[in-house]
Each structure stands twice: as C-alpha cells, then as structure tokens.
Write a structure and sequence with these properties.
By secondary structure, the chain is of the alpha/beta class. Helices cover 49% and strands 18% of the residues. It has one domain. 29% of the residues are buried. The model has no long low-confidence stretch (mean pLDDT 95).
C-alpha cells in the first residue's frame, strides 16, 4: 500500500471545487502521527508537499524512513491517479538507473521484483497529515530546486532531467531520528528496495552495498584523473 501523507498545500492541490463543494480524495488518517499507525510491513509511507514555481505546480514526495525524495514539476492539479502513476514510474526508473550505474543489477531479478511491487503498491491512499522532520528536508530540497530553476530559467523539461535532480538530492547526507550518524537516502532506499522487493537477506544486501561503494570509488578515481589531466 502506498500511503501519501499530504501537507495542507498538497491536500489543496489534490482537491477541486465543484458547484461550491470541495471534492477531495484526501482522507482523514487513522492516527494523527504517522509512526502511530498500525504496523504494516508492506506500507510505504511518503510525505507529499506542493508549491508553485514559475507559475507551475511542483510536488515533492519524500519517503519517511529513508528520506529518499522525488520532485514532480508541472504537476496536473486534482489528478491523484495521474500523480501516482508518474510517481511509480519515476521511483522504479530511478532505482533501476541507480542499480545499473553501480553494478547492482546482478542482484535484481526484474520479473519477480515487479510482481512484488505490484502486489505491495498496487493500491494507494492519501491522508491529510504532515511530518515535521521530513517536512524540514522537503523545505531544504524545495529551496535548492527553486534556486536551480531560477538560475536555469525553467523547470526540468522532462522526466530524465527531473530524475537527475532527484539523484543529486538523494546523494546528499541527511540525519533524522533513528539514525546515529549521517546517511545517504539513495543508499538507504537501495537497501530498502533490495529487502522489500527483491527479497534479499541482510548479508546479500550488504554485499551489494559494498559493491556499490567500490564502483563509486572507481568513478571518483576516474574523475580525479580527468581533473588532473
């Protein structure tokens, strides 16, 4: 189950007014605090926020446990199903791209992975509630996004460009409750994905993460060499 916890701004974004009556898919949550929800291993808790940049709607979605984020520029107002489809496509695409870049696909069996994803995330619900800690991270990302958009004079023109921005943000160290030290959202999400949708054990996940770090060091070494030349 995909659970999208909507801030007040996001709740308004997904709502519309018809004949003076507000029609919204955003429901009252089972509890005011996300962490107080009944435990459900298949539930994916996200926080969604909406802002306007260059007169266009922009949505920010951040995964509560890992702080992995995605940005959706020029979003269509009051189209929850369209957003969820775009969200799922971007999430899968971003993870596959990341896994391919860092030699992780050897641990990914695509067909059963997608079956597990469809089974687990085939349904969604929107709740009106926020999350203070995750909101702070969204505010930081939104500030950077607006600064980049102002510098370039436009929003990301396509999903590939948006995905690259996602990648930059998820490669930034973050800290939050439950983590002793700083961590990287892309690494945390990769481990979560391998655990949840590829059914890998912790030792295998660690092997995959170790390989990821090896490739990152190789890339850094090449970049240093190119800079030196």
């Amino acid at each position: 189950m995909l659970i999208f916890n909507c801030t007040e701004a996001a709740s308004k974004f997904f709502s519309r007014v018809h004949k003076g009556k507000t029609i919204t898919p955003v429901e009252k949550p089972p509890s005011p605090i996300i962490e107080d929800d009944e435990s459900n291993e298949s539930a994916e808790q996200w926080l969604v926020h909406a802002i306007t940049v260059q007169r266009k709607h922009v949505l920010f979605a951040i995964h509560i446990p890992t702080r992995y984020c995605m940005i959706f520029a020029d979003a269509k107002k009051a189209d929850a199903e369209g957003f969820v489809q775009r969200f799922a496509d971007r999430w899968i695409s971003g993870l596959i791209r990341h896994a391919g870049q860092f030699d992780i696909l050897q641990w990914v069996d695509a067909e059963p992975m997608m079956e597990r994803f469809q089974e687990s995330c085939g349904q969604f619900v929107l709740y009106r509630r926020s999350h203070r800690s995750a909101q702070k991270h969204i505010d930081e990302i939104a500030w950077i996004f607006q600064d980049v958009a102002a510098e370039r004079g436009s929003l990301p023109p396509d999903e590939f460009s948006a995905e690259r921005f996602d990648g930059d943000m998820n490669d930034c160290p973050r800290n939050s409750k439950g983590h002793k030290d700083y961590y990287y959202p892309d690494e945390e999400m990769l481990a979560h994905w391998l655990r949840q949708y590829c059914s890998l054990g912790e030792s295998t996940i660690q092997t995959a993460l170790d390989r990821r770090m090896e490739v990152k060091r190789e890339i850094w070494a090449i970049q240093r060499q190119l800079d030196a030349d």
